[in-house]
Amino acid sequence: MTATDGRWRQNWSGHTPFRRARVHEPTTVAEVQRIVAGARQVKVVGAGHSFNGLADTDGDLLWLGRLAPAAIEIAADRRAVSFSAGLTYDQLCPALHAAGLALANTASLRHITVAGAVATATHGSGDQLGNLATAVAGLELVTAGGERVALHRDTDGDRFLGAVVSLGALGVVTRLTLHVEPTYDVVQHVYAGLPWDALYEYFDDVTGAGYSVSLFPTWQQPAVESVWVKHRLTPGAAAPEPPADLFGARLQATHLPTLQNDRVRTAVSEPGPWHHRLPHFALNAPGAVGNELQSEYFVPRRHAVDAIRAVAAIGPELAGVIGVTELRTVAGDDLWLSPAYGGDVVAIHFNWWKDWAGVSAVLPRVEAALAPFDPVPHWGKLHTLTPGQVAAGFPRIGDFRRLATEVDPAGVFANGAVRTWLLDV
Length: 425
Ligand SMILES: Cc1cc2nc3c(=O)[nH]c(=O)nc-3n(C[C@H](O)[C@H](O)[C@H](O)COP(=O)(O)OP(=O)(O)OC[C@H]3O[C@@H](n4cnc5c(N)ncnc54)[C@H](O)[C@@H]3O)c2cc1C
Known about the structure:
The protein is an alpha+beta fold. The chain has two domains: 110 residues, Uridine Diphospho-n-acetylenolpyruvylglucosamine Reductase, domain 3 (2-Layer Sandwich), CATH 3.30.465.10; 204 residues, Alpha-Beta Plaits (2-Layer Sandwich), CATH 3.30.70.2520.
């Protein structure tokens, strides 16, 4: 099906208009091959949740939500699953759980596509947990000219490590294979009022207090307002009694009403399946309303406390535009364009009110505060760093450029964002 209709005129937040000339909804890989073979410029949009122009093109835009086969294929050893690349986590996770399987982690929401999340190294939190792209065991692409290419972690070495987090610059990902594990439960405990000094002194203990820990400061109070500690449980097992005190923060029976306007919260202190408790947005929650902007910077874990102190020092300047911040930890990996390439990182995420004028005024202040700590931005979020500053944070960007030029010499998949941030640097 080909249509240039009302779909995909803009991204989720409405901040970035899409210029696409045509929108296609291919149902087969052969159809993807035909579209790509005849196209000058192609881009895939997942759920359109990136805050910048990553998924935009002035040529042919593909949405893969109808791509066959619809079935999720489970490997005989039950350690991997394969599926068509248009699937969202909302579609994948309940099916995995029903089959007794699970992913190691999720992002804060499930509305996004797996391929879109993988392409931008989307992540959740957890000292031992890599970003969502690290779950990829293999992928299939339609490359420029319409050829089909399959890449596997076990057999394709550098080409695989370069192709997983790719901003769609190498081709249309039509199928993904992810590592999975037996299903599990999660219980989430919420603490209020973690004093800043306690965070600075016990940072590793705080982020290590659970399987996945998120801290939510607004930078306007003498403490981190809220800390969410998620523990992993064997299905059906009782949750251990949580300590009433976490380095000075107090255990809560519910979420904090003061932060309620920012996130729809998952249940507190009530065990549930991993895919209901790891994301912050409840299933089918109205998180699909784009009334916010987001920025996020990753710093090497060794700089975590100093970087957080530096942002806290400019906290008063953020008042008026900041909704909330989320501090998360991500384990290091070997994917070339991953912000966690080569070592563990701490992610400092900003939920802004939808006020680009105000946000773009404070971003340089945030970036200046973080500059001594080698920050790299989230590929799918908003920042004001220069292409050179961004490139400096990705040691394999030159290798990626060579790979992209080899696989796509005419730049069929090189939209403005890919050129600016990866190819023309
Ligand atoms: C409310 C909200 C909450 C968020 N929470 C988190 C979070 O917890 N953690 C985090 O890290 N990020 C988070 N993000 C950012 C988001 O996860 C990323 O921007 C992610 O890339 C969005 O996925 P998508 O399916 O919308 O992809 P899109 O934004 O549509 O696309 C992203 C990129 O992937 C490419 N792409 C998509 N599919 C394919 C394909 N099949 N083949 C080739 N290229 C493809 C696109 O061309 C584009 O370059 C959040 C965003 C929002 C709006």
